[in-house]
Amino acid sequence: MFSRLPNCVTVVLSDGLGSGVKANILATLTTKIASHMLEHELPIDDVVETVSETLPICKIRKIAYSTFCIAQLFSEGYAHIFEYDTPPVFFLRNRKIQKIPYYDDRIVQKKNIRESQFELRRGDWLIFVSDGAINAGIGGVWNLGWGWDNIANYLQSHTHPNLTAQEVADDLASTINKLYDGKPGDDVSVAVIKIRRKLFATIMAGPPSKKEDDEVAVKELMATQGLRIICGGTTANIVSRVLNRPTNVDLTTMTAEIPPIGSIDGIDLVTEGILTLSKTVENLKNNVPLKDLQYKIDGASALTRSLMNVDAIKILVGQAMNPAHQEPRMPIELGIKTHIAQQLALELRKRGKEVELEYF
Protein backbone atom coordinates (compact mmCIF):
# COMPACT_ATOMS: atom_id res chain seq x y z
CA MET A 1 0.00 0.00 0.00
CA PHE A 2 1.21 3.46 -0.93
CA SER A 3 0.42 6.81 0.74
CA ARG A 4 1.79 10.32 0.60
CA LEU A 5 2.25 13.17 3.09
CA PRO A 6 3.55 16.64 2.20
CA ASN A 7 7.18 15.80 2.98
CA CYS A 8 7.34 12.04 2.55
CA VAL A 9 6.10 8.97 0.72
CA THR A 10 5.19 5.86 2.69
CA VAL A 11 5.23 2.28 1.44
CA VAL A 12 3.69 -0.54 3.49
CA LEU A 13 4.24 -4.14 2.36
CA SER A 14 2.63 -7.02 4.23
CA ASP A 15 2.49 -10.77 3.63
CA GLY A 16 -0.05 -13.04 5.29
CA LEU A 17 0.95 -16.51 6.52
CA GLY A 18 0.40 -19.11 3.82
CA SER A 19 -2.08 -18.12 1.13
CA GLY A 20 -5.78 -17.74 0.57
CA VAL A 21 -8.51 -15.64 2.16
CA LYS A 22 -7.13 -15.57 5.71
CA ALA A 23 -3.66 -14.53 4.55
CA ASN A 24 -5.15 -11.83 2.37
CA ILE A 25 -7.34 -10.46 5.16
CA LEU A 26 -4.47 -10.26 7.67
CA ALA A 27 -2.08 -8.66 5.18
CA THR A 28 -4.71 -6.14 4.09
CA LEU A 29 -5.54 -5.36 7.73
CA THR A 30 -1.86 -4.75 8.46
CA THR A 31 -1.35 -2.34 5.56
CA LYS A 32 -4.58 -0.47 6.24
CA ILE A 33 -3.83 0.04 9.94
CA ALA A 34 -0.31 1.29 9.23
CA SER A 35 -1.31 3.50 6.30
CA HIS A 36 -4.28 5.02 8.15
CA MET A 37 -2.18 5.92 11.17
CA LEU A 38 0.63 7.37 9.06
CA GLU A 39 -1.80 9.41 6.95
CA HIS A 40 -3.03 10.97 10.21
CA GLU A 41 0.59 11.81 11.04
CA LEU A 42 0.83 9.64 14.15
CA PRO A 43 4.39 8.91 15.33
CA ILE A 44 6.01 6.01 13.50
CA ASP A 45 6.83 4.36 16.86
CA ASP A 46 3.11 4.28 17.70
CA VAL A 47 2.34 2.80 14.29
CA VAL A 48 4.89 -0.01 14.67
CA GLU A 49 3.69 -0.77 18.18
CA THR A 50 0.00 -0.82 17.18
CA VAL A 51 0.61 -3.05 14.17
CA SER A 52 2.83 -5.39 16.22
CA GLU A 53 0.22 -5.70 18.97
CA THR A 54 -2.50 -6.40 16.42
CA LEU A 55 -0.74 -9.28 14.65
CA PRO A 56 -1.47 -12.69 16.23
CA ILE A 57 1.11 -15.47 16.45
CA CYS A 58 0.44 -18.93 15.03
CA LYS A 59 0.37 -21.27 18.06
CA ILE A 60 1.64 -24.24 16.07
CA ARG A 61 4.37 -22.69 13.89
CA LYS A 62 5.24 -19.93 16.42
CA ILE A 63 5.46 -17.28 13.70
CA ALA A 64 3.39 -14.21 12.91
CA TYR A 65 0.26 -14.60 10.85
CA SER A 66 1.30 -11.47 8.97
CA THR A 67 4.62 -9.74 8.39
CA PHE A 68 5.22 -6.11 7.45
CA CYS A 69 7.73 -3.60 6.17
CA ILE A 70 7.09 0.12 6.59
CA ALA A 71 9.31 2.52 4.65
CA GLN A 72 9.09 6.30 4.89
CA LEU A 73 11.03 8.22 2.23
CA PHE A 74 11.51 11.88 3.13
CA SER A 75 11.98 14.78 0.73
CA GLU A 76 14.98 15.88 2.80
CA GLY A 77 16.80 12.86 1.34
CA TYR A 78 16.66 9.95 3.75
CA ALA A 79 14.73 6.73 4.40
CA HIS A 80 13.36 5.36 7.67
CA ILE A 81 12.51 1.66 7.49
CA PHE A 82 10.93 -0.84 9.90
CA GLU A 83 10.91 -4.56 9.06
CA TYR A 84 9.17 -7.39 10.86
CA ASP A 85 9.87 -10.94 9.61
CA THR A 86 10.25 -9.75 6.01
CA PRO A 87 13.26 -10.29 3.72
CA PRO A 88 15.74 -7.41 4.16
CA VAL A 89 15.23 -4.48 1.80
CA PHE A 90 17.45 -4.37 -1.30
CA PHE A 91 19.23 -0.99 -1.42
CA LEU A 92 21.18 -0.26 -4.62
CA ARG A 93 23.38 2.67 -5.57
CA ASN A 94 25.20 2.78 -8.92
CA ARG A 95 23.96 -0.76 -9.55
CA LYS A 96 25.72 -2.10 -6.43
CA ILE A 97 24.02 -3.53 -3.35
CA GLN A 98 24.61 -1.29 -0.34
CA LYS A 99 24.79 -2.45 3.26
CA ILE A 100 21.88 -1.05 5.26
CA PRO A 101 22.88 0.33 8.69
CA TYR A 102 20.41 -1.45 10.96
CA TYR A 103 20.06 -0.37 14.58
CA ASP A 104 19.96 -2.96 17.32
CA ASP A 105 16.77 -4.98 17.01
CA ARG A 106 13.86 -3.34 18.78
CA ILE A 107 11.54 -5.57 20.83
CA VAL A 108 7.87 -4.64 20.53
CA GLN A 109 5.33 -7.01 22.12
CA LYS A 110 8.01 -9.74 22.10
CA LYS A 111 8.56 -9.20 18.38
CA ASN A 112 11.94 -8.31 16.87
CA ILE A 113 11.66 -5.19 14.70
CA ARG A 114 14.60 -4.27 12.44
CA GLU A 115 14.96 -0.51 12.13
CA SER A 116 17.22 1.53 9.86
CA GLN A 117 17.66 5.11 8.75
CA PHE A 118 20.00 6.17 5.96
CA GLU A 119 20.69 8.81 3.32
CA LEU A 120 19.19 8.60 -0.16
CA ARG A 121 20.66 10.01 -3.36
CA ARG A 122 19.20 10.57 -6.79
CA GLY A 123 19.45 7.31 -8.77
CA ASP A 124 19.21 5.02 -5.71
CA TRP A 125 16.84 2.05 -5.74
CA LEU A 126 14.88 0.40 -2.92
CA ILE A 127 13.26 -2.96 -3.66
CA PHE A 128 10.93 -4.73 -1.25
CA VAL A 129 9.81 -8.35 -1.69
CA SER A 130 7.81 -10.90 0.28
CA ASP A 131 9.33 -14.29 1.09
CA GLY A 132 7.52 -15.79 -1.90
CA ALA A 133 10.18 -14.09 -4.04
CA ILE A 134 13.00 -15.56 -1.94
CA ASN A 135 11.49 -19.06 -2.27
CA ALA A 136 10.98 -18.87 -6.06
CA GLY A 137 12.14 -22.00 -7.89
CA ILE A 138 12.36 -24.10 -4.73
CA GLY A 139 12.63 -27.78 -5.56
CA GLY A 140 13.10 -26.95 -9.23
CA VAL A 141 15.52 -24.46 -10.75
CA TRP A 142 16.86 -23.72 -7.25
CA ASN A 143 16.81 -26.52 -4.66
CA LEU A 144 16.47 -24.08 -1.77
CA GLY A 145 14.77 -21.26 -3.63
CA TRP A 146 16.18 -18.26 -5.49
CA GLY A 147 17.45 -16.71 -2.26
CA TRP A 148 18.22 -13.14 -1.19
CA ASP A 149 21.80 -13.12 -2.55
CA ASN A 150 20.76 -14.34 -6.00
CA ILE A 151 18.03 -11.71 -6.20
CA ALA A 152 20.58 -9.08 -5.16
CA ASN A 153 22.92 -10.16 -7.96
CA TYR A 154 20.04 -10.11 -10.44
CA LEU A 155 19.03 -6.58 -9.42
CA GLN A 156 22.60 -5.32 -9.78
CA SER A 157 22.41 -6.12 -13.49
CA HIS A 158 18.78 -5.08 -13.99
CA THR A 159 18.48 -1.62 -12.38
CA HIS A 160 19.59 0.43 -15.36
CA PRO A 161 19.38 4.22 -14.75
CA ASN A 162 17.04 4.67 -17.73
CA LEU A 163 14.47 2.18 -16.43
CA THR A 164 11.44 3.20 -14.40
CA ALA A 165 10.44 1.65 -11.08
CA GLN A 166 7.46 0.03 -12.81
CA GLU A 167 9.69 -1.57 -15.44
CA VAL A 168 12.03 -3.02 -12.81
CA ALA A 169 9.06 -4.30 -10.78
CA ASP A 170 7.48 -5.89 -13.86
CA ASP A 171 10.77 -7.53 -14.84
CA LEU A 172 11.42 -8.91 -11.35
CA ALA A 173 7.86 -10.24 -10.98
CA SER A 174 8.04 -11.86 -14.43
CA THR A 175 11.32 -13.58 -13.59
CA ILE A 176 9.93 -14.88 -10.30
CA ASN A 177 6.87 -16.23 -12.13
CA LYS A 178 9.13 -18.07 -14.58
CA LEU A 179 11.08 -19.62 -11.70
CA TYR A 180 7.78 -20.90 -10.34
CA ASP A 181 6.97 -22.19 -13.84
CA GLY A 182 3.83 -20.06 -13.77
CA LYS A 183 2.51 -21.82 -10.65
CA PRO A 184 3.67 -19.85 -7.57
CA GLY A 185 3.84 -21.96 -4.44
CA ASP A 186 3.63 -18.84 -2.25
CA ASP A 187 2.19 -15.35 -2.51
CA VAL A 188 4.63 -12.92 -4.11
CA SER A 189 4.67 -9.15 -3.62
CA VAL A 190 7.18 -6.74 -5.15
CA ALA A 191 7.51 -2.99 -4.54
CA VAL A 192 10.16 -0.84 -6.24
CA ILE A 193 11.16 2.75 -5.44
CA LYS A 194 13.51 4.77 -7.62
CA ILE A 195 14.87 8.01 -6.18
CA ARG A 196 14.58 10.82 -8.74
CA ARG A 197 13.33 14.34 -9.24
CA LYS A 198 9.58 14.89 -9.07
CA LEU A 199 7.93 14.77 -12.50
CA PHE A 200 4.94 16.92 -13.50
CA ALA A 201 2.23 16.97 -16.17
CA THR A 202 -0.56 19.46 -16.94
CA ILE A 203 -3.63 18.56 -18.99
CA MET A 204 -5.91 21.13 -20.62
CA ALA A 205 -9.19 19.31 -21.27
CA GLY A 206 -12.00 21.26 -22.87
CA PRO A 207 -12.52 24.95 -23.67
CA PRO A 208 -13.20 27.43 -20.85
CA SER A 209 -16.83 28.37 -20.20
CA LYS A 210 -15.99 32.01 -21.05
CA LYS A 211 -14.20 32.76 -24.30
CA GLU A 212 -12.27 35.58 -22.63
CA ASP A 213 -10.61 32.95 -20.41
CA ASP A 214 -9.09 31.11 -23.39
CA GLU A 215 -5.86 33.04 -23.20
CA VAL A 216 -5.70 32.75 -19.40
CA ALA A 217 -6.01 28.95 -19.54
CA VAL A 218 -3.42 28.63 -22.33
CA LYS A 219 -0.97 30.87 -20.48
CA GLU A 220 -1.37 28.72 -17.36
CA LEU A 221 -0.74 25.58 -19.42
CA MET A 222 2.41 27.01 -20.99
CA ALA A 223 3.73 28.35 -17.67
CA THR A 224 3.80 24.92 -16.03
CA GLN A 225 6.83 22.65 -15.79
CA GLY A 226 6.91 19.11 -17.07
CA LEU A 227 4.65 17.57 -19.72
CA ARG A 228 2.00 19.73 -21.42
CA ILE A 229 -0.98 17.76 -22.69
CA ILE A 230 -4.11 18.81 -24.59
CA CYS A 231 -7.25 16.66 -24.71
CA GLY A 232 -9.89 17.77 -27.20
CA GLY A 233 -10.05 19.05 -30.75
CA THR A 234 -11.69 22.36 -29.82
CA THR A 235 -9.16 22.80 -27.02
CA ALA A 236 -6.31 22.18 -29.45
CA ASN A 237 -7.74 24.83 -31.79
CA ILE A 238 -7.83 27.34 -28.93
CA VAL A 239 -4.20 26.64 -28.00
CA SER A 240 -3.19 26.84 -31.66
CA ARG A 241 -4.94 30.20 -32.06
CA VAL A 242 -3.59 31.75 -28.84
CA LEU A 243 -0.02 30.58 -29.51
CA ASN A 244 -0.28 31.22 -33.26
CA ARG A 245 1.10 27.75 -33.96
CA PRO A 246 -0.45 25.24 -36.38
CA THR A 247 -2.01 21.96 -35.36
CA ASN A 248 -1.02 18.86 -37.32
CA VAL A 249 -2.85 15.53 -37.20
CA ASP A 250 -1.20 12.12 -37.57
CA LEU A 251 -3.86 9.87 -39.11
CA THR A 252 -1.65 6.79 -38.70
CA THR A 253 -2.37 6.89 -34.94
CA MET A 254 -6.14 6.52 -35.40
CA THR A 255 -7.81 3.27 -34.30
CA ALA A 256 -11.38 1.97 -34.50
CA GLU A 257 -11.97 3.29 -30.97
CA ILE A 258 -9.71 6.31 -30.59
CA PRO A 259 -9.31 9.36 -32.89
CA PRO A 260 -5.80 10.31 -34.05
CA ILE A 261 -3.08 12.16 -32.17
CA GLY A 262 -2.16 15.70 -33.16
CA SER A 263 0.86 17.90 -32.57
CA ILE A 264 1.49 21.56 -31.69
CA ASP A 265 4.95 23.02 -31.21
CA GLY A 266 5.64 23.27 -27.46
CA ILE A 267 2.98 20.70 -26.51
CA ASP A 268 4.06 17.17 -25.61
CA LEU A 269 0.81 15.35 -26.44
CA VAL A 270 -2.36 16.39 -28.29
CA THR A 271 -5.31 13.98 -28.27
CA GLU A 272 -9.05 13.93 -28.87
CA GLY A 273 -11.12 14.61 -25.76
CA ILE A 274 -13.86 12.51 -24.17
CA LEU A 275 -13.28 9.21 -25.99
CA THR A 276 -9.55 9.32 -25.25
CA LEU A 277 -10.02 10.34 -21.61
CA SER A 278 -12.67 7.65 -21.10
CA LYS A 279 -10.40 4.96 -22.55
CA THR A 280 -7.55 6.20 -20.34
CA VAL A 281 -9.77 5.87 -17.26
CA GLU A 282 -10.71 2.36 -18.45
CA ASN A 283 -7.02 1.44 -18.82
CA LEU A 284 -6.39 2.57 -15.25
CA LYS A 285 -9.45 0.84 -13.81
CA ASN A 286 -8.43 -2.40 -15.51
CA ASN A 287 -4.82 -2.03 -14.33
CA VAL A 288 -3.53 -2.52 -17.87
CA PRO A 289 0.26 -3.05 -17.55
CA LEU A 290 2.34 -0.29 -19.09
CA LYS A 291 4.33 -2.90 -20.99
CA ASP A 292 1.11 -3.82 -22.83
CA LEU A 293 0.76 -0.18 -23.94
CA GLN A 294 4.43 0.38 -24.74
CA TYR A 295 4.18 -0.10 -28.50
CA LYS A 296 0.60 1.13 -29.02
CA ILE A 297 0.38 4.45 -30.87
CA ASP A 298 -3.20 5.51 -30.09
CA GLY A 299 -3.93 8.58 -27.98
CA ALA A 300 -5.32 6.74 -24.94
CA SER A 301 -2.26 4.50 -24.68
CA ALA A 302 0.04 7.51 -25.01
CA LEU A 303 -1.95 9.44 -22.39
CA THR A 304 -1.98 6.51 -19.95
CA ARG A 305 1.79 6.07 -20.29
CA SER A 306 2.42 9.79 -19.81
CA LEU A 307 0.31 10.05 -16.66
CA MET A 308 1.68 6.88 -15.07
CA ASN A 309 5.26 8.08 -15.55
CA VAL A 310 4.82 11.35 -13.61
CA ASP A 311 4.14 12.16 -9.96
CA ALA A 312 1.98 15.29 -9.97
CA ILE A 313 -0.79 16.14 -12.43
CA LYS A 314 -2.84 19.29 -12.83
CA ILE A 315 -6.02 19.02 -14.92
CA LEU A 316 -7.41 22.28 -16.34
CA VAL A 317 -11.06 21.35 -16.91
CA GLY A 318 -12.87 23.59 -19.38
CA GLN A 319 -16.60 23.79 -18.68
CA ALA A 320 -17.88 25.16 -21.97
CA MET A 321 -20.77 23.09 -23.37
CA ASN A 322 -19.80 21.23 -26.52
CA PRO A 323 -22.96 20.95 -28.67
CA ALA A 324 -21.65 17.76 -30.30
CA HIS A 325 -21.75 16.01 -26.93
CA GLN A 326 -25.38 16.83 -26.19
CA GLU A 327 -26.85 14.88 -29.10
CA PRO A 328 -29.38 12.45 -27.53
CA ARG A 329 -28.14 9.52 -29.64
CA MET A 330 -24.55 9.92 -28.38
CA PRO A 331 -23.37 7.75 -25.42
CA ILE A 332 -24.22 9.39 -22.12
CA GLU A 333 -20.58 9.64 -21.01
CA LEU A 334 -19.92 12.09 -23.83
CA GLY A 335 -22.01 14.73 -22.02
CA ILE A 336 -20.20 14.55 -18.69
CA LYS A 337 -16.68 15.83 -19.29
CA THR A 338 -16.29 17.01 -15.70
CA HIS A 339 -17.26 13.57 -14.41
CA ILE A 340 -14.65 11.90 -16.62
CA ALA A 341 -11.97 14.31 -15.32
CA GLN A 342 -12.97 13.48 -11.74
CA GLN A 343 -12.82 9.75 -12.48
CA LEU A 344 -9.37 10.19 -13.98
CA ALA A 345 -8.24 12.09 -10.89
CA LEU A 346 -9.62 9.35 -8.62
CA GLU A 347 -7.81 6.56 -10.46
CA LEU A 348 -4.53 8.48 -10.49
CA ARG A 349 -4.77 9.24 -6.76
CA LYS A 350 -5.25 5.53 -6.06
CA ARG A 351 -1.78 5.11 -7.53
CA GLY A 352 -0.23 7.72 -5.26
CA LYS A 353 -0.28 10.56 -7.79
CA GLU A 354 -0.81 14.13 -6.66
CA VAL A 355 -3.75 15.46 -8.67
CA GLU A 356 -5.19 18.96 -8.79
CA LEU A 357 -8.37 19.88 -10.66
CA GLU A 358 -8.88 23.47 -11.77
CA TYR A 359 -12.06 24.57 -13.54
CA PHE A 360 -12.39 27.26 -16.20
| 3D shape | elongated
Identify low-pLDDT runs. 325-335
Number of helices: 11
Instruction: Please name the CATH architecture of the largest domain.
Output: 4-Layer Sandwich
Number of strands: 17
What is the C-alpha radius of gyration, as a whole number of Å?
Answer: 23 Å
Number of domains: 2
Backbone structural class: alpha+beta
CATH class of the largest domain: Alpha Beta
Looking at CATH, which topology of the largest domain would you report? Answer: Phosphatase 2c, domain 1
Residues in β-strands, percent: 15-25%
Strand order of the largest sheet: 1-2-3-4-8-7
Helix-strand sequence: EEHHEEEEEEEHHHEEHEHEEEHHHEHE
For the biggest sheet, the summary is: 6 strands, antiparallel
CATH level-four homologous superfamily name of the largest domain: PPM-type phosphatase domain
Give average pLDDT, whole number. 86
Termini separation comes to 34 Å
What is the percent of helical residues? 25-40%
